[in-house]
Amino acid sequence: MAHFDVVILGAGAAGLMCAIEAGKNGRSVVVLERNRHAAQKIRISGGGRCNFTNINTDKTKFISENKNFCISALKRYTPQDFIKLVDEYKIDYHEKTLGQYFCDDSAMQIIELLLDQCEQNGVEIVKQIEVKKIEKNDGIFTLITDAEEYSGDKLVLATGGPSIPKMGASSIGYIIAKQFGHSIIDIRPGLVPLTFSDDMKGYIAVLAGISIDNVEVSVADKKIKQKFREALLFTHRGLSGPAILQISSFWREGKAIVINMLPDVDMFEQLLKAKKDNPKQLLHNMLSKYFAKKLAVYITEETDIDGQMGGMSDKKLQKIADMVNRWHVMPNGSEGNRTAEVTLGGVNTKEISSQSFESQKTEGLYIIGELLDVTGYLGGYNFQWAWASGYAAGRAL
Ligand SMILES: Cc1cc2nc3c(=O)[nH]c(=O)nc-3n(C[C@H](O)[C@H](O)[C@H](O)COP(=O)(O)OP(=O)(O)OC[C@H]3O[C@@H](n4cnc5c(N)ncnc54)[C@H](O)[C@@H]3O)c2cc1C
Predict the structure, then answer these.
(1) Which of these three, 334, 352, 369, is where a domain ends?
(2) Would you say the pTM of this structure is higher than 0.85?
(3) Closest to 99 (Cα-Cα) out of 67, 48, 51
(4) Boundary (domain end) residue, out of 306, 334, 362
(5) Is 162 in the same domain as 70?
(6) pLDDT, tens digit (0-9, with 9 covering 90-100), for 85-106
(7) Ligand 1 centre and the CA of 115: distance in Å?
(8) Which residue, by CA, sits nearest to atom 41 of ligand 1?
(9) How many domains is the chain partitioned into structurally?
């Protein structure tokens, strides 16, 4: 049996960052990873360019039942700290939008950076290994695997969430956390496209491929205050694009999504003006000034109102304006773990130290990254959480 000061389960963003810091602290560290390659989610992140941080990171960009838990770690390892590391490796990057930092070239550069740092700090990474059972006896954790056995004075769980199972994602972290006394806040897919029932989908499918650059989306529920202004994409299954991914993390079954397709335009006012200035104009032609032709026609079909604007009642114009500025759509679900970027919920952070990330249930056990009930908005926040929680735990080991 190979013994280490620290055994880390999961060579993803959080696990590797934790390993680097623990290695710097002089600890002997092994990271066990079930995949053939480390950090597969980094590889596919940000469309292959990895949105590795967001300079607007603060607690308001995270969803958790314990809203202040993330503050301490985020303060101790900031976006600037990670950017400094990226600079040291001469990786070119750019701010795309809304504080989101992406590699110019490839997400692989971030993986290479982390693996190089691991090597420099003496971290051993064992791949293609499946943990079968974990025991803790006399203060030592023993991991029984499908290959060699490993033991450690400290055990770090960094196995992430179950989204994208084909990338090796699993729910094992929750099972082990429960074994060691932890409770789990309900998990569900987040940052995920929304789908529609067949009759609704039939209509939306007509619009597949159309995107709108700037919509405002919210949930039709007074208790849910979040609104997002970003792009929306119609797909053949339903709705996607950054605005929808963001609001999906707040949406609950049975609630409608409210879409303002022109948040900077009072459509009723514009319709009244158009009716007065150009009464012979057809409604769908007027709408085509704002939208792709297909979408303009779709609005008239959905409302069953078209024709010359001059003869239209204010009531009809209001109905059109409502669809443009307050369109209520009722998703029947989401694409689920198959395409979700994150998993909401996770290990209850009230049972974890926000300083060291050590479990308050089992001494020597640490839990970091997406496995915890801390989920970032879209835009680089989830990696910043992985870096920050991994750093804090690594320094404490
Ligand atoms: C398509 C996609 C794009 C994304 N893009 C971005 C982005 O651009 N910016 C951003 O901030 N976030 C992005 N995210 C989210 C981000 O990838 C995650 O939040 C982040 O990777 C979580 O880090 P983690 O270390 O906690 O978990 P992970 O990175 O998921 O790492 C967990 C590791 O544990 C391993 N593991 C799982 N089960 C076992 C087991 N039984 N035994 C051993 N090892 C195991 C996994 O193989 C994996 O290597 C994206 C996610 C997806 C799916």
Answers:
(1) 334
(2) yes
(3) 51
(4) 334
(5) yes
(6) 999 999 999 999 999 999 999 9
(7) 15
(8) 172
(9) 2
Question: What amino acid occupies position 213?
Answer: D
Q: Is the pLDDT of residue 296 over 90?
A: yes
- Say how far apart CA 383 and CA 107 lie, in whole Å: 12
Does residue 153 sit in the same domain as residue 168? yes
Indicate whether 92 and 169 sit together in one domain: yes
Q: How far is the CA of 13 from the centre of ligand 1 (A)?
A: 7
Which CATH number does the domain housing residue 181 bear? Answer: 3.50.50.60
How far away, in angstroms, is 39 Cα from ligand 1 center?
A: 7
Q: Which protein residues touch ligand 1 with a CB less than 6 Å away?
A: 9-15, 32-35, 40-41, 44-46, 50-51, 131, 158-160, 163-164, 168-170, 172, 341-342, 369-371, 380-383, 386
Indicate if 53 and 161 belong to the same structural domain: yes
Same domain (yes/no): 32, 169: yes
CATH of the domain at 305: 2.40.30.10
Domain boundaries, position 324: 193-334
Going by alpha carbons, the residue nearest to atom 24 of ligand 1 is 160
In the reported structure, the alpha carbon of residue 374 is separated from the centroid of ligand 1 by a whole-number distance in angstroms of 14
**Confidence class for position 24, pLDDT limits 50, 70, 90:** very high
Do 10 and 134 share a structural domain?
A: yes
289 and 383 together in one domain: no
Same domain, 167 and 306: no
* Protein residue with least CA distance to atom 4, ligand 1: 45
Digit-coded pLDDT (tens) for 242-257: 999 999 999 999 999 9
Which among 174, 186, 193, 160 is positioned nearest to 338, based on CA atoms?
193
From ligand 1's centre to the CA of 162, what distance in Å? 9
